[in-house]
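Write out this protein's structure.
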Amino acid sequence: MRRSAAFAFISLALALWACGDATTPAGPSPAAISTAEALSRPIRFPAAYSTTPEPDDRDRDEPITLSGRLFGHGKAGVILAHMRPADQTSWFSFAAELAATGDYTVLTFDFRGFGESSGEKEFNRVDTDLAAALKYVREELGIEKVFLVGASMGGTASLLVAAREHVAGVVSVSSPAVYLDIDALAVVSLIKAPKLFITSEDDVPAQRSQEQFWAQAGEPKEQEIFEGDAHGTDLFGTPAGPRLTQLLRDFLANH
């Protein structure tokens, strides 16, 4: 990647979290989102109604179409799955920083019902949407080595998909062990890929889930527990943000 482009990505990464403070993290500003959109490219891809179809699925006429952004042109793929009530913009800063290395093609996307993705919010089908994103990266972009990184419900979905599919690694940030009908705890032991679990010590539900994940997951696995109670991608806007960024970058680079 040319130096000027790399500088633009890094500048964006710093700008996205410029507003807000450690106790009340703010998401990216409209200006920062516009900059990210200018540096990335929009995509749309289809998703099934469910990986485990239900009787009423056949009565639905309109397909689910998910909206995403692609950052960079690297050989390894990274899919960033957002938490609730955030959307894909919550990952823009990290996506831009990864893309600036030249090593990764990074996909952010909105789950169904969020942003410009079609459909209603169906939280028990977040794994279906993530599986569709993985299929897009592999089949449309031709990238076989793909990492899944998710915050909160996005992390629960990442663990579930990693138990079904071969991936290069999976990261869970503040993820519930069970989210509605999505039970990641039941399958975490099946994940053969390297795993990284991250949470905050005072984010009590997520911390308890992490303890459960850690007890059930096989090697290779790593974990990090930050001070405070920040949840998911809100960690980027706290003093732990630089450490979180480095942890993620090291995990991806090492695997």
